[in-house]
Amino acid sequence: EVQLQASGGGLVQAGGSLRLSCAASGFRFDDYVIGWFRQAPGKEREEVSCIDPSDGSTYYADSVKGRFTISSDNGKKTVWLQMNSLEPEDTAVYYCATVLCDDDRIYQYDYWGQGTLVTVSS
What we know:
Number of helices: 0
Order of helices and strands: EEEEEEEEEEE
Low-confidence stretches: none
Radius of gyration: 13 Å
Mean pLDDT: 95
Structural class: mainly beta
Distance between the termini: 40 Å
Helix content: under 10%
Largest sheet: 7 strands, mixed
């Protein structure tokens, strides 16, 4: 069974940092691209980032480029999202997912877990 469990969220002040983790299981890790999306209450899903574990290629949405960094460990089947210079606009539930992703967008989401809440105060 495919499982993707996000963790590491919390409450931080603007300008602070958090590191989110995504533990994957139930599939061959390097056969899938792993991405992060976020959703604030009452708002649509917003893409964040993705990484292809097979070659390390990455994509970042313009809203987080230069502030967030995605990385992976194939042996641990884990993906991280390092978030720096956090802003109140980053407040949302963050989910990791198996995705289809190219160099300018995430265009398909297939599996995801319950997500983890990130709250950034002013």
